[in-house]
Amino acid sequence: MYVCICHALNDKQVTKALENGARTPASVFRHYERQVQCGKCVPMMRDMVQSHCANQCPSCPSHAAAHHPAPLPEPANAESFPYGIAAE
Ligand code: FES
């Protein structure tokens, strides 16, 4: 199933990026050396990240970050904000 139409990324490719350490939609795009375009795939990618991380062990850095969130850095896709989408 395609997750990102703009870059033809399917669910298997997104899962592979998550298995290799991606923890945000922006990091999935960076994994494939792409940038967010329309942003319509971001909510689905966020759901996939959440599902993936729900099964992670407590030693995962993203698990610790979820329980002790740090201030959010400037998103890499700030130019997409006119559309109300943040991929970080
Ligand atoms: S569908 Fe992913 S950026 Fe457009």
Which tags fit this structure?
single chain, 88 residues, two-stranded antiparallel ribbon, 6% strand, globular, binds FE2/S2 (inorganic) cluster
Beta content: 5-15%
Query: How many strand units?
Result: 2
SS class: mainly alpha
Low-confidence spans: pLDDT under 50, at least 5 residues?
A: none
Average pLDDT rating: 81
The order of strands across the largest sheet is 1-2
Say which molecules are bound, naming each kind only once.
FE2/S2 (inorganic) cluster
Shape: globular
Radius of gyration: 13 Å
Count of helical stretches: 4
Total number of domains: 1
Order of helices and strands: EEHHHH
The biggest sheet amounts to: 2 strands, antiparallel
Separation of the first and last Cα atoms: 23 Å
Helix fraction by DSSP (H/I, runs of at least 4): 40-55%
Organism: Azospirillum isscasi
Protein name: (2Fe-2S)-binding protein
InterPro entries: BFD-like_2Fe2S-bd_dom, BFD-like_2Fe2S-bd_dom_sf
Pfam family, one: Fer2_BFD
